[in-house]
Write a structure and sequence with these properties.
3-stranded mixed beta sheet; alpha+beta
Length: 192
C-alpha cells in the first residue's frame, strides 16, 4: 500500500512540476501563453514590487509563509526518511540455549526458505523477504505457481515444510508469513 501511495504522490508532484516548468519555459522562449497565465509578457517577473509588498504591513503574512515552507520541508524530510528506511531484516537472533545468542544473516535464511519453497510441487519460483525485528521476524513469501498447481496445497506445504523448518532451525517461537500467490502465464488449452 505504501509503495502505491509513494508512486501516486511522486507521479502527481512530477506532473505538476512538468506542467508548470514547461509552461514557464514555453513563455520564456516566446511561445504563446494561455489567457489564464499569470504573466502578460515574456519579460514579466514572477513577483512584481506591488505583489511582493502588498502584505508588508500585515503582521501575519511572512510568519505564515515561513510556517508553510517549514512544514513542507519537514514533510519532505519525513517522506524521504520513510522511503529510505530499510524494510528487509539483515539478521535474525538465534537462541543457542546457553544465555548467549548467535546471529543468522537474514539473507541466508531467506535463501534457505526460497530454495525449499521452490522445490515444492507446483511451485515454479519463490521469493522470500524477512521483515520485522531480529528477535521476531516475519516472512513475506511470493510464490509463482505452475499452471495446474493447487494454491491451497502449495500454501499448506509451504507452511508445513519450508516455514516450519526455518522456524525450528532458527529456534523461533513463531514465524508469521504473508503469502502472495501468482500463476505462471500460459496459453489456453484447446479441447477437441
Amino acid at each position: 500500500m505504501q509503495r502505491i501511495v509513494n508512486r501516486v504522490l511522486l507521479g502527481l508532484i512530477g506532473l505538476a512540476l512538468i506542467v508548470v516548468g514547461g509552461s514557464v519555459l514555453a513563455v520564456g522562449l516566446g511561445g504563446r501563453w494561455p489567457t489564464w497565465w499569470i504573466h502578460d509578457d515574456r519579460h514579466d517577473v514572477l513577483l512584481s514590487n506591488a505583489e511582493r509588498t502588498h502584505y508588508r504591513d500585515a503582521g501575519w503574512w511572512w510568519p505564515a509563509v515561513l510556517a508553510v515552507l517549514a512544514a513542507l520541508v519537514l514533510l519532505s524530510l519525513w517522506w524521504l526518511a520513510a522511503v529510505l528506511r530499510r524494510r528487509r531484516l539483515t539478521e535474525v537472533l538465534v537462541d543457542t540455549g546457553d544465555g548467549e545468542g548467535a546471529l543468522l544473516r537474514g539473507r541466508a535464511m531467506e535463501n534457505a526458505v526460497e530454495g525449499e519453497a521452490a522445490r515444492l510441487e507446483g511451485v515454479e519460483r519463490a521469493h522470500v523477504t524477512l521483515t520485522g525485528r531480529r528477535t521476531s521476524p516475519e516472512a513475506r513469501v511470493q510464490l509463482l505457481l505452475q499452471p495446474h498447481a493447487a494454491p491451497e496445497e502449495a500454501v499448506r506445504r509451504l507452511t508445513a515444510e519450508a516455514l516450519t523448518n526455518a522456524r525450528d532451525s532458527a529456534g523461533l517461537k513463531s514465524l508469521p508469513a504473508e503469502v502472495d500467490l501468482r500463476a505462471v502465464k500460459h496459453s489456453a488449452e484447446r479441447v477437441n
